[in-house]
Specification:
Layout lengths: L10 E15 L2 E9 H10 L13 H12 L4 H4 L3 E4 L2 E4 L4 E6 L6 E4 L1 H18 L11 H10 L1 H10 L16 E9 L5 H18 L7 H8 L3 H10 L7 E2 L8 E2 H12 L5 E2 L5 E2 L6 H4 L1 H12 L5 E3 L5 E3 L2 H10 L2 H18 L8 H9 L18 H9 L5 E5 L5 E5 L3 H16 L10 H5 L2 H15 L3
Parallel strand pairs: 3-7, 8-9
Antiparallel strand pairs: 1-2, 1-5, 2-7, 3-6, 4-5, 10-11, 12-13, 14-15
Helix pairs in contact: 1-4, 2-4, 4-5, 4-6, 8-12, 9-13, 10-12, 10-13, 14-16, 14-17, 16-19, 17-19
């Protein structure tokens, strides 16, 4: 079971190494060895995968690991890299046992080996339920699903643990819970030295990234770990609580909308604030308008660079960063409204295109897109629409919303981004005339959404169409 000590807010667990070796350099000490699944259960009780850069999903990888646990337990520790743990506070109980204190589970805990941890947990849960002639819960797809089932069946698991309990120094009798798991534990070399602790915590993200290079750590995952999305997430949850949980900020976390899609839109208001520089003094330029459509990965990479600027974020705990730039915060407040406005334009565009003399459904790209999809839903809010539209047609129109934004200086001297007027009310009155002008941009590109979306002229034409409508022309 989970062991706790000190503050109730600090998670802790005791693990026992069956075999181990100790190494160290700088402020980091590592203990490499094997622990039994029986001891690993304490970690599952205590931790989630908050510190792991990627969430783990049930699939072929976890199935293969479970098969190895079942079929070849004696060589399992040689078939896997195991689990990488980190804890900034610890107590060495004896030569084999360590009590680990996880003071910040966003930066400490299971840094790598999430699939191994999930597989071991599923294996133990299955053994416990089989001993009771019970079936595994259905639809366990993610760590969160598993952990919910684990907690629900924890009494059954404890019964199974008791039924296989023996003298812990008995190495002759082998049960499934005695299978060895490779564990690498990182701890600070001197936990009484605050400078050593700070350096230890700061290095953990780089270690995470390096250890996960077999499946490249996505830019969004690294940005998420640094906390660069945190303020944006809070604002989005307030603005659109139904959309917020559907965004995948962290690899394999789940969600049908990628972080890059949302961040690309956020660059529209962000491009209005004063330029910021990197730690080396290099100006971080916003993406050009075309990249909002053609290179969302670049938009995300630029965002990570932008948020890493000391002019934007300050150091927080460990490798976390905290937003302090009020101009950026004001742009975020605009950015979280853009998915809804994207959907609004997306829903209205086909009928307004037809109203202005076009035949939207006869465009080959539109006809093909609608023939391939069984449902017709707006990209973000999933409201029903009359026709699906290629993003290349819509993104320039959404970029044009920049004309409805302006900046002003607040009483503290910060440049603040705001709407000139309520955007949806303005679109209700003026989107017709905007579409009438913008639609002329499609014919020169042969109604090819790829060419429209990748033409800088499309974005300038859309911006001009908004400005002309604002001027009453």
């Amino acid at each position: 079971m989970c062991n706790s000590s000190g503050s109730d807010s600090v998670k802790s667990a005791v693990i026992k190494f069956s075999q181990s070796d100790k190494q160290g350099t700088g402020c980091i000490q590592r203990i490499i060895g094997f622990i039994k699944i029986r001891s690993f259960i304490n970690l599952i009780d205590t931790l989630d995968l908050d510190a792991n850069p990627r969430s783990s999903k049930v699939g072929n990888v976890t199935n293969d690991i479970e098969d190895s646990l079942e079929d070849t337990p004696e060589i399992f520790p040689f078939k896997t890299k195991g689990v990488l743990l980190a804890a900034s506070r610890y107590e060495q109980i004896d030569s084999k046992r360590y009590r680990l204190f996880f003071e910040d589970t966003e930066t400490e805990g299971i840094l790598d080996g999430g699939h191994n941890a999930l597989s071991i947990g599923l294996y133990v849960l299955r053994l416990a339920l089989n001993s009771k002639d019970e079936q595994m819960p259905s639809a366990l797809k993610t760590w969160s699903d598993f952990k919910e089932a684990w907690l629900d069946k924890r009494s059954d698991i404890e019964d199974y643990i008791r039924s296989t309990r023996k003298d812990e120094d008995d190495d002759a009798t082998i049960t499934p819970l005695d299978t060895l798991v490779p564990v690498e534990l990182l701890i600070p070399k001197d936990q009484t030295d605050q400078n050593c602790l700070d350096e230890f915590r700061t290095n953990l993200l780089d270690i995470c990234a390096a250890r996960n290079n077999n499946v490249q750590l996505t830019t969004s995952t690294k940005a998420n770990k640094h906390g660069y999305f945190d303020e944006f997430k809070k604002l989005l949850k307030e603005e659109d609580p139904e959309l917020a949980p559907r965004i995948e900020w962290k690899s394999n976390e789940g969600g049908d909308i990628k972080a890059a899609d949302i961040i690309a839109l956020a660059w529209i208001p962000l491009s209005l604030i004063p330029a910021v520089t990197s730690e080396r003094g290099k100006v971080i330029e916003p993406p050009n308008p075309v990249q909002l459509y053609s290179s969302k990965a670049m938009c995300l990479s630029k965002f990570e660079q932008f948020m890493s600027s000391p002019e934007v974020c300050s150091p927080g705990r460990g490798y976390q960063r905290e937003l302090h730039n009020q101009s950026v915060f004001s742009a975020f407040k605009i950015g979280v409204q853009l998915p809804k406005l994207y959907d609004y334009i997306y829903a209205k565009f086909p009928s307004l295109y037809n109203k202005n003399g076009g035949s939207y459904g006869r465009i080959i790209a539109v006809k093909s897109l609608n023939a391939r999809r069984s449902s017709r839903l707006a990209p973000y809010g999933h409201g029903e629409v009359d026709s699906l539209s290629p993003d290349g047609f819509i993104t320039p129109l959404v970029y044009g919303l920049k004309a409805l934004m302006e900046t002003e200086q607040d009483e503290d001297g910060n440049i603040i981004v705001k709407w000139r007027s309520d955007p949806e009310a303005w679109l209700d009155r003026n989107l017709d005339s905007v579409v009438a002008r913008y639609s002329n941009n499609l014919a020169p590109w042969g109604y090819d959404p790829q060419k429209v979306g990748k033409s800088s002229g499309s974005y300038q034409n859309a911006l001009d169409a908004y400005k002309m409508a604002m001027a009453g022309i």
